[in-house]
Each structure stands twice: as structure tokens, then as C-alpha cells.
Design goal:
It is a single chain. By secondary structure, the protein is α/β, with parallel strands linked by helices. It contains four helices and 18 strands. A hairpin with a 2-residue loop joins strand 17 and strand 18.
Length: about 190
């Protein structure tokens, strides 16, 4: 029933880890995948080549996200990756065009992706190979990030473009606004 070849034997432990991971809570799943103890990884999230993933503390990875680390993937601390988001670090387009789309093809191109610290990557975002997303960036849901994004900005669209830049004063004002609104809804004790 099972193939006894190098590729199958290499992939099988990863598949079993994903299956077992479905029965764990977020923190247990993070530990199973070798992620920091403060990381929370939701159900059905997939990490391709987790040994090439560098992830900071206090990160959150949403349900159904697919993180391709085969070309190298770095995610900074306090970053959230939204539900159903796809991060690619490889492309097989040329292997397809040359009718050589097979495991190990020398036409599969790999480029590292870096996502900075303090980022919020919304749901259903696609990040293409070779992209660097700076620190403190918000990527709105359903955006396609195909080019580098500088620090402290909000991007959206297909392709994603900058809609707003953040400075420290803006962030502090927003934090005060959210905290004040939260106080209004706090239950009376």
C-alpha cells in the first residue's frame, strides 16, 4: 500500500505530523511543529519544509494558512498570518512550461520571503516568492503581495499597493482609541 522510495519516506512523517496536529490545541500544535511556545497555529494550517521556517515569539497562524518555507521563510515576532493565507517561496512555472514539472526539477525556482515583526497579514492574502514585507505592516484581506513592502504601512489590492503610512504617533493614538472604546463595553462588576 505504501511506496518505499526516498520521497515517500521523507514526506510520510510530515503527513503524520499534520494528521496528529488536527487533534491538538493551538499551543500543542505549535510545539509538535517545533515552533516557539508562544506561537499559536490553528487547525489545517500547513508548513512546507518547516526546518526552513524561522518564526519569532507570539505569532499566530490562522486556519488553512499554507506557509511554503522551501525557499526560506522568516516571520518576525508578534506577527499574525490570516485564515487561508498563502505564502509561496517557490515557483514551478518554468518547469511546467518546459514539461519538466517533477519532484527535484532544476527548473523549480526558490526565493526566500521575509515578513517583519508586528505585522498583520489579513485573511486570504497571497505572498509571492522573494518578497520582503517590512516591520509593522498591515496587509488587507484578499491582497496579492508581489513586490517588497516598506515598514509601517497599510497595503491592499491585487497587486497590493500602499494606502497609508504609519508613524509612532498614529499608532499610539489608535491604541488609545481602541482602549477607550473597550472601556465602554467592559462589563460592570
Amino acid at each position: 500500500m505504501f511506496f518505499d522510495d526516498e520521497r515517500s519516506n521523507r514526506l510520510r512523517p510530515r503527513i503524520l505530523t499534520e494528521v496528529v496536529g488536527q487533534y491538538l490545541n493551538d499551543s500543542e500544535r505549535a510545539r509538535l511543529f517545533g515552533l516557539p511556545d508562544t506561537t499559536r497555529i490553528r487547525e489545517r494550517a500547513k508548513i512546507i519544509d518547516p526546518e526552513r521556517l524561522e518564526i519569532g515569539e507570539h505569532c499566530w497562524i490562522g486556519e488553512g494558512a499554507a506557509l511554503d518555507a522551501s525557499g526560506g521563510l522568516t516571520i518576525g515576532e508578534h506577527t499574525s498570518i490570516g485564515v487561508g493565507t498563502l505564502v509561496f517561496t517557490h515557483s514551478s512555472w518554468l518547469a511546467n512550461m518546459m514539461l519538466d514539472n517533477r519532484p527535484g526539477s532544476d527548473l523549480i525556482e526558490r526565493k526566500p520571503v521575509r515578513i517583519g515583526k508586528g505585522c498583520f497579514i489579513g485573511s486570504m492574502v497571497v505572498v509571492m516568492p522573494g518578497v520582503t514585507i517590512g516591520d509593522f505592516v498591515t496587509v488587507q484581506p484578499m491582497s496579492l503581495v508581489a513586490k517588497d513592502v516598506p515598514d509601517r504601512c497599510l497595503v491592499a489590492g491585487n497587486p497590493a499597493r500602499i494606502f497609508q503610512r504609519y508613524d509612532e504617533e498614529f499608532i499610539e493614538a489608535e491604541a488609545a482609541r481602541v482602549r477607550a472604546a473597550r472601556e465602554e463595553y467592559r462589563p460592570v462588576e
